[in-house]
């Protein structure tokens, strides 16, 4: 058979075989026609070893109305001191990759989030100092409500939309009161943990001994039962202004190094030894 006849036959067969498929496309609704899975964009497939980090860390800091100016200044100074401490730098440099990605966000009520220092790779004293300087130089602000729910949701969004690839993803949330806006804090916590993050807490209890509506007794218990979650999660309470920097430094070192405090420890009290907190009491 001549070559041109073979080609004609092949084209005819291909057209006949394509008719059933074409008919199926005509009878299917438009939204059901393309059954192929969407391919990720080229950007998502790109790989940059410089974006590999040991930890992606969100520092989510409470600036609600109950935090007065003096406390906010102490809080800022505590984070700056901890981020530039020798212990923090050492913890980073002993990691398998030797660098972390960190961002500092202040939060208050629903949708009140302020990125004070955007994502930065910290690997040594110079990069840590550069990141901490952004926190130190930013103006203080204050908002009214306390939505831990919204803060957690925004923190996970920051983790999921950055360009970094961390071996661990950690949200470090600090606050001096319970969630009072935005819905169920436990439901949001469980959703965020299911998304692959660990949530650690820094309950600020400097007003616990004061006769003030702003103070909440046993805020550390609330954070343990209602806020923190994920593998190796923990909460370290801050009970005095003098101990603020030390507590933050300890917490950052534990988060970066992936370590755990040995028990028993004065910072911790097992949940089984007390009544559980009613997490939805304030939602």
Could you write a compact summary of the structure shown?
Helices cover 40% and strands 16% of the residues.
Main features:
alpha/beta; 5 strands; 9 helices; 2 domains; disordered N terminus; Rossmann fold; 5-stranded mixed β-sheet; 283 residues; globular
Could you tell me the radius of gyration in angstroms?
A: 26 Å
Order of secondary-structure elements: HHEHHEEHHEHEHH
For the record, the CATH architecture of the largest domain stands as 3-Layer(aba) Sandwich
Question: What is the distance, rounded to the nearest whole angstrom, between the alpha carbons of the first and last residues?
Answer: 82 Å
Strand content of the residues, in percent? 15-25%
Number of domains: 2
Shape: globular
Can you summarize the main beta sheet? 5 strands, mixed
**Total helical segments:** 9
- State the CATH superfamily name of the largest domain: von Willebrand factor, type A domain
CATH fold descriptor of the largest domain: Rossmann fold
In the predicted model, the low-confidence regions spanning at least 5 consecutive residues are 1-43
| Average of per-residue pLDDT values | 81
Level-1 CATH class name of the largest domain: Alpha Beta
Count every beta strand, where a strand is a DSSP E run of 2 or more residues.
5
Strand ordering within the main sheet: 3-2-1-4-5
Would you tell me the structural class of the helices and strands?
alpha/beta
How much helix, percentage-wise, in residues?
Answer: 25-40%
């Amino acid at each position: 058979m001549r070559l041109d006849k073979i080609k004609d036959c092949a084209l005819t067969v291909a057209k006949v075989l394509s008719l059933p498929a074409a008919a199926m496309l005509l009878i299917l609704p438009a939204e059901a026609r393309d059954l192929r899975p969407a391919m990720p964009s080229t950007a998502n497939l790109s790989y940059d070893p410089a974006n590999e980090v040991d930890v992606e860390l969100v520092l989510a800091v409470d600036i609600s109305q109950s935090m007065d100016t003096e406390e906010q200044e102490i809080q800022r100074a505590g984070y700056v001191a901890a981020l530039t401490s020798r212990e923090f730098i050492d913890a980073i440099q002993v990691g398998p990759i030797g660098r972390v990605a960190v961002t500092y966000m202040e939060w208050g009520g629903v949708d009140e989030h302020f990125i004070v220092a955007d994502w930065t790779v910290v690997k040594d004293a110079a990069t840590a100092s550069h990141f901490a300087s952004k926190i130190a130089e930013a103006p203080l602000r204050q908002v009214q409500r306390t939505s831990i729910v919204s803060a957690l949701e925004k923190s996970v969004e920051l983790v999921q939309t950055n360009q970094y690839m961390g071996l661990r993803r950690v949200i470090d949330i600090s606050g001096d009161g319970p969630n009072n806006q935005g819905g169920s804090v436990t439901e949001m916590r469980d959703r965020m943990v299911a998304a692959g993050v660990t949530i650690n807490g820094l309950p600020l209890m400097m007003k616990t001994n004061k006769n003030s509506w702003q103070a909440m007794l046993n805020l550390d218990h609330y954070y343990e039962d209602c806020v923190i979650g994920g593998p190796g999660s923990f909460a370290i309470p801050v009970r005095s202004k003098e101990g603020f920097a030390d507590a933050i430094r300890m917490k950052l070192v534990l988060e970066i190094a992936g370590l755990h405090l040995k028990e028993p420890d004065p910072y911790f009290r097992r949940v089984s030894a007390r009544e559980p907190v009613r997490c939805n009491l304030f939602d």
